[in-house]
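This part of the workshop introduces the protein records we will be handling. A record pairs a protein's sequence with a compact description of its fold. Comparing a sequence with its tokens is the quickest way to learn the format. To make this concrete, we reproduce a full record directly below:
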Amino acid sequence: MTSSASLTSRNFPGNFPVNSFFSAVVVSPFGAVGIRSDADVVQELVYLPPSFPAQAPGSTVAETAAYQIERFLADPDFRFDLPLASVGTVFQRKVWAVISAIPRGDILTYGEVARIIQSAPRAVGQACGANWFPLAIPCHRVTAAGGLGGFSHQDDATGFHLGVKRWLLAHEGVTDV
């Protein structure tokens, strides 16, 4: 399997051949979401810039993921129920479990998540950035103590990824970050 770090939206050249990598691409108000899957599980969800066109699902699992992403984009109360690949370290999965329990409309800080799992805020931030399944594991619901914080290992205030985080939080009714 190819490493997420080497082939995520952070590293795509503008002419990357979409069909060769994603099982589906769902267009969204903030850009697009790429879905990588195999026959049984979703391997990865990737935030993509608006230049990526929609791509019809190429498998049943991708079709299910695309449908659930579209449902969430229409209704922030929708809850994902996808077969996700088993990825990440034990620590990352611990962080992701806490994040998955944050209700829509709520946020926790990196420090609050760290206290729950008896860790450090920076380590929690790293685990959030390593999330293979954004939306399904809503890492956008974790913020810095003094504001928005980073997102997908990005912290450029005017950059694409923080724009996605702002859109997702507003979509879920969080306006005070």
Strands lie at 24-28, 31-37, 42-48, 108-109, 142-143. The chain has two domains: 4-74, 90-171. DSSP finds five helices and five strands in the chain.
